[in-house]
Known about the structure:
By secondary structure, the protein is an alpha+beta fold. It has 4 helices and 12 strands; from the N terminus they run ααααββββββββββββ.
Amino acid sequence: MSNQVDYSALQSLGLANQSPTVANSKKSDLGQGDFLKLMVTQLNNQDPMEPMENGDFLGQIAQFSTVNGIGDLQKSFSEFASSISNDQALQAANLVGRQVSVPLPAGVLAEGGSIAGELTLPASSPDVSIRITDQSGQIVKTLPLGSQSAGAVPFTWDGKRADGTMAPPGLYNIDGQARIDGQNFELDAQIAANVESVTLGGLGKPLQLNLTGLGSVPFSSVSRIF
Length: 226
């Protein structure tokens, strides 16, 4: 037998006032309530001499369960997104005004201040150093760190040039260098930076930290919070 709904029967029961073409132009998706009404109407108007087969009825029940499950899933996703947003807001409140360690090519030297950070050595080295250059590429100072074991190697530049005078405030490039097994390696530095503000990400977007003088970085890039 056919499982299609008799649309004229729906109209006689007050469940449809328009032709299928007009109705579909206004609403293309069936909700849970619509699906249930259609299924009940079909049962009420079926031919008693040829009732719906058990398999067909179970199939429609399964479809109804699917519609119901999709609605529950959408609600769960909405609640999950709200929870993530609330967690981000709490993280943001705790980070503003603090320092974080992030992989950056440069650091900001404040008036009378310093730049701190760390290198990560993949293996022990007898000769590790930090090269500091200004924005024109001129070497301001080289910090010798000597022999270091594999792992994190902290450093601090006090803001003084090679001649002992104070460098002007501004942005300075920080590069690490190490000699490992007879070869010279360039190492990226993790720089300590101040969190000025935070931009909350929407669903699927990361929390962004706005660093003083250094722009924005994703929260996922933070290796340490001071």
